[in-house]
Each structure stands twice: as structure tokens, then as C-alpha cells.
Design goal:
Layout: H1 3-10, H2 19-27, H3 31-36, H4 39-43, H5 49-57, H6 61-74, E1 77-81, H7 89-92, E2 100-105, E3 114-118, H8 125-140, E4 144-147, H9 153-164, E5 168-171, H10 185-193, E6 195-199, H11 211-221, E7 225-228, H12 236-242
Length: 243
């Protein structure tokens, strides 16, 4: 197993995102040492502790990687790590960037010129209309529109770009084999065909509340700026803007 394999495997273990993965990589001299380490050795790594160490040791890396790579290949999903040259430069520069990205479709060089358009799921007709208008104009200027594939403002932004034949990137808060929300699955397929569908979660990761905060930082990291069309005072859209 090389570092790429280690990153993909560790990314599948709940609670082991970001700085904790960095701590493990720094603590051990090689990927092989991580796999062969016992629970006590893993627990001594800063931020890990006994529970996470147990979760790591009960996961079979070879079995997981075999299933994950095969499933990704069958569905034309590429797995990119932060060390790969195709990893988005803007995303790599944020605090706590994802170590792994799953991509269905294609992230192109021109997608570096991107703006996120996000907002409320339960939006007004005015909000929906403005999301469509803003996204349409961004598209006409060759700007890639990034959003979160949710119902409401997100879907309006994606659909507006797709109607113009432009570039759009959708970031989801679940695994690409567990797309959420279900009613937007057809939209997600069109996004993948005309841009890229992106997730930092392993293929079969189910939807969990905390996933959406992590997704929001990826949306912001892929964009030069964030347009919040319509949102409540406490909302994921504002979290995206704060990132």
C-alpha cells in the first residue's frame, strides 16, 4: 500500500478526517507502519485515542480498497488525493482541505474561475428567479457555478447553468453511490455530464447532519466567491459564506 491507498482507506473511517489523518501520517514513518501498528501505538497519536484506534484496527484496508476501487471504476468515478496534480489548487489552499475527492465527471483547468451560488431549500419564487438569473449571467461570462445539489436555490442555480450549456460543479454531503437528496438524482447525473459531481466521502457514506458543514467548506474552497441568494440567519449557506 502506498500513501494514496492509505489516504483513501483512512478517509473511510468515521471521525478520522482532516488534522487527525495528518497527525497519523506525521507520526509514522511509512504507510506500511500505519497498517501494521497496533491499537496502543495508534492511540498514542495526538487526537486519536482508544476509540478511533479501535475503529482503525477493525477496518480491513485491503478489503475496503478492493471494493472501493472496483465500484468507482464501474461507475466512472475518479478518486483524487490531495497529492495528485489534478487536485484543485484553490481547494488545497483552504484550512483542513479534504485528503480525498471522489469526482464523477471532470474538473477542468477553467473551473478555477468559479463562483458559488447557494441559498435556502425552502426559497421564495423571487429567490429562485434571482438564483437562475445570477447563474445564467455568470455562465455567459464563462464562470463555473458551484453549488450543493440541494432543492431550492442550489437546484435553481445548477439548472440555469445546464440550460445555457455552461459548466457547473455540484458538491454533495454523502457518498456518490448514496446521492442526496433523492429527488435531485436526475439533476446530479446531468451535472456530472456537463461538469462534475464531487464528494469527499467514501462511495457508500450515508447522509449525516455533520456532513453538510464539511460539504460547505468544499463548496467555498472550489470558488473565488460565494453568492448567498436567500437564507435564514442560521443556515448552511451562511456557513459557506463564512468559510
Amino acid at each position: 500500500m502506498d500513501k494514496r491507498d492509505i489516504l483513501v482507506w483512512l478517509n473511510s473511517i468515521t471521525g478520522l478526517a482532516g488534522v487527525r489523518t495528518d497527525a497519523i501520517l506525521s507520526y509514522f514513518e511509512s504507510p506500511a507502519d500505519i497498517v501494521s501498528a497496533d491499537e496502543d501505538q495508534l492511540a498514542r497519536v495526538k487526537g486519536i485515542g482508544s476509540t478511533l484506534a479501535r475503529n482503525i484496527k477493525t477496518s480491513d484496508p485491503q478489503e475496503f480498497l478492493s471494493r472501493e476501487y472496483e465500484a468507482a471504476s464501474k461507475r466512472n468515478i475518479r478518486i483524487i488525493t490531495i497529492d495528485d496534480p489534478e487536485y484543485p489548487v484553490s481547494l488545497a489552499s483552504i484550512h483542513d482541505p479534504p485528503h480525498v475527492l471522489y469526482v464523477k465527471g471532470e474538473i477542468r483547468k477553467e473551473d478555477v474561475i468559479a463562483v458559488a451560488v447557494v441559498g435556502a431549500r425552502r426559497c421564495s419564487m423571487y429567490g429562485r428567479t434571482q438564483a437562475e438569473k445570477i447563474s445564467r449571467h455568470l455562465c455567459r461570462y464563462g464562470v463555473t457555478v458551484v453549488s450543493g445539489c440541494a432543492v431550492g436555490i442550489d437546484a435553481a442555480a445548477h439548472n440555469s447553468v445546464l440550460k445555457q450549456g455552461g459548466r457547473t460543479i455540484g458538491v454533495v454531503g454523502s457518498g456518490l453511490l448514496r446521492p442526496y437528496p433523492r429527488q435531485n438524482r436526475e439533476l446530479m447525473e446531468r451535472i456530472a455530464s456537463n461538469g462534475a459531481l464531487v464528494s469527499e466521502f467514501h462511495l457508500n457514506q450515508n447522509v449525516e447532519r455533520g456532513n453538510f458543514v464539511r460539504r460547505n467548506r468544499v463548496i467555498s474552497g472550489l470558488a473565488l466567491g460565494v453568492v448567498v441568494v436567500e437564507a435564514a440567519k442560521r443556515s448552511g449557506a451562511l456557513i459557506t459564506a463564512q468559510y
